[in-house]
């Protein structure tokens, strides 16, 4: 699964015992009676794994056309029991009245639903084969029911909100699914379609028995979808979607099939294992809460990430390639070999990202890959790892109900950096050998990170356990420094040091590059920094450079020293990769109050607007400009700076040749503008729908422009109504209608909107909620919106319980991400002070989201 970046303008353990190493009977002896408690505790999971095997589900759902009508369902579970020492707990997080009858081994059993578990007494069970048959009303906690379509999304532990099951990743099972749906609907599931029967306005789909799946990967989607068929490699593949824009469809559909085919081919070759499931298939879902989700045979994607038109930027195209490769890589990493427990959920994510990068590297060439890797992963990883609320890559987890708190930038972005360092340390060939051995050994089953490290250790030149501890089990990053001594213009000594940015003493063994720049040439040097201090003897005797760029290949992780002598040559450095690395280091130093202040850095980046030509780099500095402007510049200073920044952007748009670069600059212009004249100019563009020459603006762009104009007080009273009239797609219309009150100039309307979010039913479309929150808490609204902060923080625990896995962090980010005032700072600090015993993972998420706010107290003048 993959998260999507919502606001491109804002930059935004312990080793678990490995079950696989122990034999079943060993565990059975040590397993104690699992108490009945809410969620899926590790204890319960360990017990069940020790006694249950060979699980098969037969599931039937009858889905009526009317969303208000209940879904009648039947689940038949067949499984083997090794012991009946304790009652059996099935997970079902619903009201008891939803369960109509329970038959165990053909005998009726009274329904006993306790703390989210259907409990079956030992007397009904027997060692060996058992069958449990349950007639019930499906729970709707994870069915994502809309008026004319629905889709399941069960990761990490939501299958149990819909049907009774053993909802843990290491009890893999086969699923035989029957769906009864309205005649005109279509459906997609993990298994191939066996047959379809239409009778009395109802269609019955029988799907073939699925391959072995963890419950979180069981999925189906059904509804008023359009369907197209194509080939992914040799697999006949169905694609369901609701998009109506023919320009997008005609362009995107063939591309989507091709990208999947290329990804599949790459992963089959790299792993040496043929595609491990019976069929391929995917569905595009409007306003999907993630970028994608890797259900075998029924991958779900956010529709807007798949369907691009001719106005798509390189960034959007890259993101789509990456997303598809990511979900496809999961077929091996996560789906075929699955983590034992969600402690290792990061493993499937890091492999999916890492492999996606690899597959795309071959398409774009090494330099481009290195640059993309750097700008994709490092700023996002630093966003969390620089904060007091950072988490290690691998985190402990006592109960699956808290699994959502494990997700975030560290697993999606620091982990790939770690993995690349690991691959460099081992060498690509040895690394691939180790990973292949691991996949082969655990195919169709489950494994843990220690299982992989043990295998890789055989192929590695150093002790991986020590290496693993600092990179995987601990948080943070090193501060790198150096001491250069020169005599007669020759280097006599060059010492590099590292120390942790915070916390206990530790070192990050890593390989990186630094480059010495001279007036007419440069020289890159590889450095293997294994300890706290390194005397780089090989440079002794070399001429003193004009300046030094640390981390010039962009693979080293930490806060790198910035040589101020570089500033005047910044945009003259030839390789885009080196410039990108410099930009990131400068920004990180600025945040730490070192080397350069926000105002000077904003000026330096503004100077680059008409000099930086690489699209990814231009996007990076535009993101930084936006961040410094809104987060680290006072409101008064912004008013002074805006006209100059607007002019620089507009001039750069005019001079720029590339349409994509023009568009990046235009988006920043739209984001930062404050002057009346800029507002008039943008209003004229929106009204006439005449984009500046060389820029293609899509319907989504005009929608976003209308919201910016409204936010900044454009006086046209019918602005938003007019925009609504221009949107024809019903899903996009309802999204726009939802966001509209959040940009209202009327405080009362905004207050009402905020209050409406207290109702869970108003938060179901999470991506819409987040977009609205961004406007509601925009820096320009800080004074009037700061009063929402205490309540928003109070709601966090409920958000975690009711929302999808990324929602708590995204909720906080959308709310706290752009505040800088002292009063906001005090509110967050008070909340943290008053909630000393708060859920530690949620507390950490608050610290992550409020990090810029905290830094702003020191940095904003
Ligand atoms: Zn993923």
Proportion of β residues?
Answer: 15-25%
Structural class: alpha+beta
- Alpha plus pi helix count: 29
How would you sum up the global shape? Answer: globular
Instruction: Let me know the largest β-sheet.
Output: 8 strands, mixed
Low-confidence stretches: 5-30
What is the rounded distance between the termini?
Answer: 41 Å
Ligands and ions found: zinc ion
Oligomeric description of these chains:
single chain
What is the strand tally? Answer: 27
Summarize model confidence as the mean pLDDT. Answer: 93
What share of residues is helical? Answer: 40-55%
- Order of strands, main sheet, comes to 5-4-8-2-1-10-13-12
The radius of gyration is: 28 Å
List the helices and strands and how they pair.
Blueprint: H1 24-30, H2 42-51, E1 52-62, E2 72-81, E3 88-91, E4 99-104, E5 107-109, E6 113-114, E7 117-120, E8 128-137, E9 149-151, E10 173-182, E11 186-189, E12 193-199, E13 202-207, E14 220-223, E15 226-232, E16 235-241, H3 246-271, E17 281-285, E18 292-293, E19 299-302, H4 303-306, H5 314-329, E20 338-339, H6 345-364, H7 366-385, H8 409-426, H9 428-442, E21 446-447, H10 449-459, H11 464-472, E22 478-487, E23 490-500, E24 510-517, E25 522-529, E26 533-535, E27 547-550, H12 576-591, H13 598-607, H14 615-631, H15 635-655, H16 659-672, H17 676-688, H18 699-711, H19 719-726, H20 730-739, H21 747-756, H22 766-776, H23 782-785, H24 789-794, H25 796-802, H26 807-816, H27 822-834, H28 840-849, H29 851-859
Helix pairs in contact: 1-2, 3-5, 3-6, 5-6, 6-7, 6-8, 7-8, 7-12, 8-9, 9-10, 12-14, 13-14, 14-16, 15-16, 17-18, 18-19, 20-22, 22-26, 25-26, 26-28
The protein binds zinc ion.
Residues 1-2, 294, 326, 330, 349, 352 line the site of zinc ion (ZN).
